[in-house]
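sorry for the late reply, my laptop died twice this morning and i had to redo everyting from scratch. anyway the thing you sent over, i finally got around to it. pasting the sequence first so we're on the same page, its 777 residues, then the predicted structure underneath. double check i copied it right bc i was rushing
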Amino acid sequence: MTAPAFPAGTILGYPRIGRRRELKRAVEAYWAGRIDATELERRAAELRAATRARLLELGLGRDDSSIPEAYAAYDHVLDTALAVGAVPERFAHVRAADGSVDVDGEFALARGEAGQPPLEMTKWFDTNYHYLVPELAPATAFAAHPERLVARFAEALAEGVLTRPVLVGPVTLLALAKPAAEAPEGFRPLDELDRLLPVYAELLARLAEAGAQWVQLDEPALASESLDETPARLRDAAARAYAALGGAARRPALFIATPYGGIGAGLASLAATPVEAIGLDLVRGELPSDLDEPTRAALATKTLVAGVVDGRNIWRGDLAAAFDRALALEGVAGALSVSSSTSLLHVPHDLADEEQLDRRLVSWLAFADQKVAQLATLARGIADGRESIDAELADASAALADRSGAPGVRVPAVRERLAALRDADFARAAYDDRVEAQLDLGLPELPTTTIGSFPQTGELRRARAARASGELDEPGYRRLIEAEIERVVRLQEELGLDVLVHGEPERNDMVQYFAELLDGFAVTQHGWVQSYGSRCTRPSILWGDVSRPAPMTVGWSAYAQSLTEQHLKGMLTGPVTILAWSFVRDDQPLADTARQVGLALRDEVADLEAAGIRIIQVDEPALRELLPLRRADQPGYLDWSVGAFRLATGGAEPATQIHTHLCYSEFGVVIDAIRGLDADVTSIEAARSRMEVVEDLGRSGFDHGVGPGVYDIHSPRVPAEDEVRELLERAVAEVPASRLWVNPDCGLKTRGYEETVASLGHLVQAARSVRESLARG
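ok and here's the structure:
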């Protein structure tokens, strides 16, 4: 087929939650019963239209397929799974007679329903976005359901905008899937590729009939060596998939995007297929230098889409270097285009919304809208020559130079303290000695606790807003927070939990709270980024050297401890997670920044001990998240990430019990690193995966305390006591009860009190039941 021209500049995706979280509010209103499905769709359509209008305003084309159609009400992986009919048998009842799934069925898969847990959720490659894991089996009834795809494309076309529909590619969809419970031993989802390809072909045909000229298929699996499938097998699958789809008689032109890293030999595999455009992430990857002659000849017939603008961070960056990187590719392929390295899903909407940020800092930054404008600039430069964009390049270079010399970016005292560190600063007493020293904590077998946060009520959010606006004075705010802490402490005592928390009512976010109290950070007003479903976070901006001017958590923890005779955990967020859930400076190695944060937390641990807190949790839920996708880069990362945690906790006394928490990741590949953290107790997400992680723990010989989660807090379901007990019994079968803790998967901030109280009640009763069973032998 003769392909239409690919746009000179484009993006791989755009934030879909809305500039003011309009989609979040609409979806949650639907869940609460305040609006119906018709109104939900009306609001979603308004948001999609507003997005298209904004992208046109920023310079993307109306009729050249440069605007990607990548909307999802909950998750783009789930949307693709539904489009190909990949509905697990346990959710067969949500399918209509024609096999399609309506919005209620979609949310049932995402959030679960009575008696049926939702799909498992885990991190999307090495990002903080969470996707829903498809469940497949040999009996999965793949079938094309293009109705939503076609309707959204037609919606834009009716406005006179020719968009580019986006799907997760077939290889990545299968590589990210897991075997369903009914799948036979040894079943591998990627083996289903030949059954799935005709379904993709049918989707493409239907989109072509609707008028789509280009379709984008995302294949980030080709950039990863951290999946269950080998890179060679993934490359072979991609070659087979795109030979078949590229050879289809009825289809739009195909753009295969490969974000999140370099694809190495995968480029040759794709180039040999009849697809029309290939996108490379040139921020985290590069064009292979050893292209053979057949690959060069194949590329001469295609468009190479150079991902030279960072889709994952918010720095304005070196625009001149990005232009030069793109320009160096001229002649490698038949045509050249520029794009973001990844979807802009990972960054906030618009820097212009940030009226309270320091103006100097603002000049160093670029959010999604600014990155779209950068790509329009680069595309113009490639078309019209460098001199046509000299002013924009010079302005970006001046901002970069200003940033490097600004006060606070480099603080001598911080750097001198880092330089003085010794090996002894990264180690505690031997674990067995610590266990002995901690016996006087007096904890029962299978001690129960929570991860830290309790539900954040509307009253608390309003109080923080009133304090920020000056409507509520500091004494009034403090009284309100103290009252909430006392309520949470008393509730835990009534429920019978063994180790208590203060509930974190004073914290807006587990990272932002610390960012507001540490030097070297800035926080945004509207910098929201989707984490999963309707859940959004506001990553802070780590722009300079980090230090702690004063204690951050000691006052609230000491107050809570004064209310009870039971042990109360001090709660800190670990250095790796603070980095992972912030937009981090890119002008020095992450290891150096992590150690700076580790030193600040080390001081906080010492002050908590001095205040009489004997149990301190340093959360690292993002440890697995930042693991590089390429195996060669993983040892270096694990070395500095584990080291930053050990620096933060290395000064703790043997009698102080250090906990950590990890969530929503596949842990088998980092089990040695988890051991290396040397925390006395590690709590880990396990409920959605039905305790899969304890098998990894058992095989690895993990010998520290561990709390695999028995209550999935990312679903509104209240697990029955029997369900919790069954999970706990599975854990006891793999981990000695003397080292086992009982806890939810994660913090309870996003849950309501009614479901929280019921769920924790079942957790406590299940723990007591298993204790009694163990005592009976």
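The CA atoms of residues 521 and 542 lie 4 Å apart.
thats about all i looked at so far, will dig more tmrw
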